[in-house]
Design brief:
The structure holds two protein chains of two kinds. Chain A is mainly α. Chain A has helices at about 1-10, 10-25, 30, 55-60, 70-80, 85-90, 90-100, 115-130, 135-140, 140-155, 165-185, 185-190, 195-200, 220-225, 245-250; strands at about 210, 255-260. Chain A is globular. By secondary structure, chain B is mainly α. Chain B starts with a helix and ends in a 5-residue tail after the last helix. Classes of the chains: A mainly alpha, B mainly alpha. The interface of A and B includes residues 68, 80 and 148 of A.
């Protein structure tokens, strides 16, 4: 089973591509668009099949109502799979990984300031929309600019007359992030994404989790070398930054990292054979 | 606290929160006035979403 999971990481790009198509499938809009998407996908994208959970949260903040339904849906996802949705299903995460494949000089950054995503969640998604009555995160979101603002401008030429300063600020932010994504892996997920910030605290208590057999770990740091969010997995296998991509499970030479489920009993033992 | 205890606590927290989250969703989906209001609200977001 562990070997199968490790091998499945080879197909992660295909899973991300497939979920990008599914979340933007257009044809199911009439049925599914009132369901919060389990990843960051702009609801204003002409093909979007689901509602953006962050946009929905802001809407309820603007309306000064408690987002019972959206928080319930996000909590269920977080409690079952933690941030695995970021690693496997998020179209914008996939886009960032694809951009990072462009051969330009790379910049590795530590996780020191990754609390900024919590500030953005509380400020731009909660407090500021509540006080101003405007969904400010959505107004600036680079995913929204890429998936919605630009396609909408292309599809509806009449709307181009309404372009103002805000549009160009959004474009500047998007261009800045595109450049950063080429040199640093998943910068939006690590320092900005408020959806990741919502799911992060669920990682240590989620049903789906990682376990490390410390007795077999040689502290070779190969897990950190392949980790898209730069985690030392043997120190913190269920770190709030982990996106559960399972690259570490596959890379570990002693196979000491394993996928487990949270049960009431003792931790299961890691599988014995190294994954190839 | 032993490792076993910690894991047991995590398990209990997970199940407790999972039940609470399910209750939040079901309270909206099963109570028709809330359901129609919330679904309408989320559909309204879509209309407001063409942000220029």
């Amino acid at each position: 089973m562990q070997s199968l999971l490790a091998k499945s990481t080879r197909w992660r790009g295909w899973v991300q591509g497939l979920t990008t198509l599914l979340t933007n499938s257009y044809v199911t809009q009439s049925v599914t668009k009132s369901i919060p998407c389990p990843s960051l996908n702009c609801y204003a994208c002409p093909a979007a099949a689901f509602a953006c959970p962050i946009g929905s949260l802001q809407h309820f903040a603007v309306q000064r109502k408690f987002p019972i339904y959206v928080l319930g849906a996000l909590s269920v996802v977080g409690l079952v799979i933690g941030r695995a949705s970021c690693g496997w299903f998020c179209p914008f995460g996939w886009f960032q990984e694809l951009l990072h494949k462009i051969p330009v000089p790379k910049l590795r950054l530590p996780n020191r300031f990754n609390w900024t995503r919590y500030v953005i969640l509380i400020g731009l998604v909660g407090v500021i929309p509540y006080l101003t009555g405007e969904p400010w995160f959505s107004k600036l979101c680079p995913a929204g600019t890429l998936e919605a603002a630009l396609p909408v401008m292309g599809l509806y030429p009449d709307l181009r007359a309404e372009i103002g300063v805000l549009f160009w600020i959004k474009i500047a932010l998007l261009v800045g992030f595109l450049g950063w994504m080429m040199v640093t892996l998943r910068p939006f997920c690590r320092w900005v994404c408020p959806l990741g910030a919502i799911w992060s605290p669920f990682n240590p208590i989620s049903l789906f989790r990682l376990e490390v057999a410390q007795s077999r770990c040689g502290h070779c740091n190969k897990c950190q070398a392949v980790c898209p969010v730069d985690i030392r997995v043997y120190e913190s296998p269920n770190s709030d930054a982990c996106i559960r991509c399972l690259a570490c499970v596959r890379a570990c030479p002693t196979n000491c990292i394993s996928v487990a489920t949270l049960t009431a009993g003792p931790a299961p033992r890691a599988a014995g054979q190294p994954a190839k | 606290m032993t490792g076993f205890d910690k894991r047991r606590w995590l398990f209990l927290i997970n199940r407790g929160l999972l039940a609470l989250a399910a209750l939040l969703i079901l309270s909206v989906l099963l109570y028709a006035p809330w359901r129609s209001e919330v679904m309408h609200e989320i559909q309204t977001v879509l209309i407001n979403a063409r942000l220029l």
